[in-house]
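anyone seen this seq b4? input:
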Amino acid sequence: MIDTLRISFRNLGRKKSRSALTIMGIAIGVASVVMIASLGEIGKYTINQEIDDLGAGGLMVSGNSKTAGTQLTAGHLDAIRQSGTVDSAIPVIVDYTKTYMRGLMMDSVIWGIDYGANQVITLDTMHGRLITKNDVAANKRICVIDQNIAQAYYKRDNIVGKGIELQFSSGKVEFEVVGVVASGGNMLQGLMGNFIPSFVYIPYTTMQELMGKDTFDQIAVSVRSGVDEDVAGAKLVTVANQVSGVRSGFKAENMQGQKQKFNGILNIVTLILSAIAGISLVVAGLSIMTMMLVSVGERTREIGIKKSIGANRQNILCEFLVEAFTISLIGSLTGTAVGLLLVVLGCLPLGMPVLINMQLIVFCILFSVVIGVIFGVHPAMVASKLNPVEALRCE
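predicted toks r here
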């Protein structure tokens, strides 16, 4: 076997350009699959992190717009907090509007929230403070903004104490900035800035006063550890229905469940793209067959000499199969290395984690080697069946 391997490497070295091009074809196919698989894993991880940073975790209880009497009130909030499965719950009021500062304007989302909201949604304080119980009780006109707003207006993060105007139906209202939090969904906001605006957080009581309402849009809930979120969601819906005296007036969205469905879609897309990239491996296999058939024609006399001095069909067959195996292995390993290198070089400048689907990569290497050997069988059979007398006559 060692002699066979040595002979295979020597034969590949005879036509360096042809061997290099064949190996390159395999390497490109493998590198494509490796990159797609790795980017799929990285994309899934990054998007999940961004969704978590946006605060889209736990359960969101909301009313069914098709059913009368489904406005969430303080009574619903108290009942949900006392349900036994809830760790914490906060009222949420959302309004898409504009913010003004220093003569500039930008689209933003105003969140009316309660104190202690960081127990349910992600609020990573960078400067100043968050909303307090006193702010909520006194309907104070203070706000907490995300880092993107501070950067957009002042080109720095710390703008605590500055004034900002928020647009409501009654007109512009000035608020004092008491805190700056890290922007949730930095990457999503960078890629989809027109769809994911920046956030402003104010006391929900202040927002109710300015909007002339005493209800909530949603109630954000984090369930207790060990409690199934789907079960908890069904119980919370029942509690809300009982408070309003209706049968199906409310719904609970399990954001974690939505993330799992989204991950499933990403996995399917990754597999489909990997399969498409894998077609290039089949094309590379055809190039191996072509190269081997040409090699058989060029080495006909050599094969005849080997058979005349005692080499049998198995020896010739093994020699060509090992040659096809060697080409495939070198190409697949080269492609894997190049693919991983490109993934690392792409992730480092963006500060993204390098995640690798090792199972898919190992499968890709094995698949490319098997394809190479399969396409090398026919040329090897042709070489092993050559008549030594006829082969020796070949010029």
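The longest strand covers residues 86-101. The first helix runs from residue 2 to 14. kinda curious what u guys think
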